[in-house]
Predict the 3D structure of the following.
Amino acid sequence: MTNNYDEIFSAALSLPPGSRAMLAEHLLQSLDSQYQQQIDASWSTEVEKRLEEIEKAEVKTIPAEQVLQKLRSRNG
């Protein structure tokens, strides 16, 4: 596998920058699609949990403007 990897990597490096960027994007997208359903399911579970906590008043919410104002003051 190392020979194949090295050959592919060398060939990729010889591509013009735009083509390398496009190849990198396609490779990253191929990884994303493998895990996207699992990620979506995890986020869905998390959203349901957070919504339930809010509805049961188990957590205190903070208005978005207050959070943004605090962030702005930290970052100057």
